[in-house]
Amino acid sequence: MYDNPKNILQQKIKENLDKQSSHIVSDLVKLSLLKMAEKDEDMLIYAELYKLLGTEQFTEVISLIDGQTITFPSKEEFKETIITVLCYYYRNMENKEWDEIKLLIGDPDLNNIKYGIRAASLGKFIDKMLGRAIQ
Predict the structure, then answer these.
(1) Is 71 or 87 the better-scoring residue by pLDDT?
(2) Over 80: is that where the pLDDT of 131 sits?
(3) Which helix (H) or strand (E) holds 6?
(4) Of the residues 20, 45, 65, which one is the last residue of a structural domain?
(5) Structural contact between residues 33 and 87, judged by C-beta atoms closer than 8 angstroms
(6) Range of the domain at 27
């Protein structure tokens, strides 16, 4: 379950569970998370994340969040983030023209004004962060 234990409990699990036992315990954790989702359907996302990430990475996410409420972007918002990053990359790092960027992204109707503004904003943020890193 834990290849790189970060606390005593994780170390004990690593020491005391063989591979087969680790899989059984991992499956039991999934079932436990599904049981929690039975009472609150919103909790089903935790079981899905656990299944996707695995025990160790899920534990790291839980440690990072530590009870806070977070909101994830929608699929469309995340898609727009990826497109913005690609536009920034192609325009600023590969010096591509917008017609070529549209082909590379696979969207001939890509709004180059919208994504140009977003890519420029990303560039300013990157410059700001690089300035902080140098100081």
Answers:
(1) 87
(2) yes
(3) none
(4) 65
(5) no
(6) 8-65
